[in-house]
Write a structure and sequence with these properties.
Length: 224
């Protein structure tokens, strides 16, 4: 299922919401209508909690069906809110706070900022229980911002090279393609929320963009 929506007028919903195939971490002040759209489209339970005191969970957390890694400044109360859903969660032991921007992950693998420490890679490997490799997409180290990945496909920045796409496919065990959202925005990870059940993009995403997203992420249903 593909849906178009803005979050309080903001189309950059990938910055605010972090999702897996099981749950979505959403802003504490998310409207009931938007919560219904998230649960219906993605088929997940919703965890209402800030991360590091911020409502930008998409930028500050990343996960898969095995768990979440979060900003080193995530509060104990926020960690506990996630653990209440029987989900493993750990802080990343590094100077980087926007872990959701620098890690691209699904249930099979993860591509992370080359500057991340070995200790951080160990935490990501242990919590997400996947193969983790340092790498870039479209020559950007912010892999979580320039691509979005599910178990069914990867949508990447349109400047991603064939070698980068092949690398991503090998690590994450799914197909990859390029595209844009929100009428030409190339930071597809920052502007998209997706899992194996559905995808939500900004209201200004065009018909041709939706068709590319549908193909890249493996959705055969229509969009609204």
């Amino acid at each position: 299922m593909i849906r178009r929506a803005n979050l309080n007028g903001n189309p950059n919903i990938g910055v605010a919401i972090s999702t897996t195939d099981k749950v979505a971490i959403v802003p504490s002040n998310l409207s009931e209508a938007m919560e219904h759209l998230v649960t219906e489209t993605l088929g997940v339970s919703v965890i209402r909690t800030p991360i590091s005191g911020s409502n930008l969970a998409g930028a500050l957390a990343v996960g898969n069906s095995n768990g979440f890694v979060v900003s080193p400044y995530a509060l104990d109360s926020e960690i506990e809110a996630i653990k209440e859903f029987d989900i493993e969660v750990e802080r990343i032991p590094d100077k980087f706070t926007a872990v959701g921007n620098i890690v691209l992950a699904n249930d099979f693998g993860a591509i992370v900022n080359p500057l991340l420490s070995d200790e951080s890679l160990e935490v990501i490997t242990d919590v997400l229980d996947v193969e983790v490799e340092r790498g870039s997409i479209a020559k950007f180290n912010i892999t979580g911002s320039v691509a979005v990945a599910t178990n069914k496909g990867i949508l990447a920045h349109p400047s991603a090279s064939e070698n980068e796409l092949a690398f991503a496919e090998g690590i994450m065990k799914t197909t990859a393609d390029v595209g844009t959202v929100n009428n030409g925005i190339m930071l597809v990870g920052a502007c998209t929320v997706a899992n194996s059940s559905g995808v939500i993009v900004g209201l200004s995403t065009t018909g041709p963009e939706l068709a590319r997203i549908e193909e890249a992420l493996g959705f055969l249903e229509g969009y609204e």
